[in-house]
Amino acid sequence: MTLRIDRDESVVTITLDRERKLNALDYPTIDALLASLDRVEADDSVRAVVLTGAGHRAFSAGADIPALAGSIAGGPERALREIVRRGQALTRRIEEFPKPVIVAVNGLAYGAGCEITEAAPLAIAAEHATFAKPEISLGFPPPFGGSQRLPRHVGRKRALEMILTGDPVSARCAERTGLVNAAVPADELLPSAIELAKRITRHAPTAVAACLRAVTRGVNLSVDEGLAVEAAWFAATVPTDGVRRGLRRFLDHPARPARKSL
């Protein structure tokens, strides 16, 4: 098996388990990860996902190069089918997942490992983690969505520096530029990711899913189009138990007004 799955109450942790290969993503691993996400989505008792890598050296070194080379040797159509479609399907699945996915970057996140981090709604990195876009050294641009998502996270010029040089950046740089939410000591990484997940899962699953979808679908639209997306997802939550319970809880226990300072 190339994945390891653990559970802490309503939070599932999926671990890429190819430590000797720096958790590189070969095709069976990508397919297994997609299948695991399908099972998680169907299980209403699972409220959030933490995605990490085995060991301390790497979250993922990216796509498995021997597999990738074989696909490229088969020509453009085979390369598009086996590499691009599969890789973009994975990052889009993570980006659009209706439950929060928190990537816990436990080491280097290169190539596809960086692209998964970009696609995830939330990410926390160990302080020793590094991020890089080394695809240019192989002669091609990022194929799992990285040429599109990274500029939206960190800005066009910072993204192009990473994409055109292939040079790594630190976890602190990733934190400053918005690629990850926080950089923490390595021994605090998984506890921090699970704690963040549980802060989210306090809230109604319908509200969490609506927030995720409103932001993901609206972020690249014009403001007016984004507001329409927001309105639609608000309307979708109106008849839910989450709204009824939330309003009842507030009305039964209204917050006391803060005292004015003298």
What does this structure look like?
This protein has 262 residues and is of the alpha/beta class. Helix content is 50%, strand content 16%. It has eleven helices and ten strands. The chain has a six-stranded mixed β-sheet, with helices on both faces. Helix 5 (146-154) packs across helix 6 and helix 9 packs antiparallel against helix 10. The termini are far apart.
Strand order of the largest sheet: 1-2-3-5-7-10
Mean pLDDT value = 95
Report the principal-axis shape: globular
> What's the multimeric state?
single chain
Q: What is the helix fraction of residues, given as a range?
A: 40-55%
Overall number of strands: 10
Question: Layout of SSEs?
Answer:
Blueprint: E1 3-8, E2 11-16, H1 27-42, E3 48-53, E4 58-60, H2 65-73, H3 76-95, E5 101-105, E6 108-110, H4 112-119, E7 122-126, E8 130-132, H5 146-154, H6 156-165, E9 169-170, H7 171-177, E10 182-184, H8 189-200, H9 205-218, H10 223-237, H11 241-252
Helix pairs in contact: 1-3, 2-3, 3-4, 4-5, 5-6, 9-10
Characteristic key phrases:
single chain; 262 residues; six-stranded mixed β-sheet; four-stranded mixed β-sheet; 11 helices; 16% strand
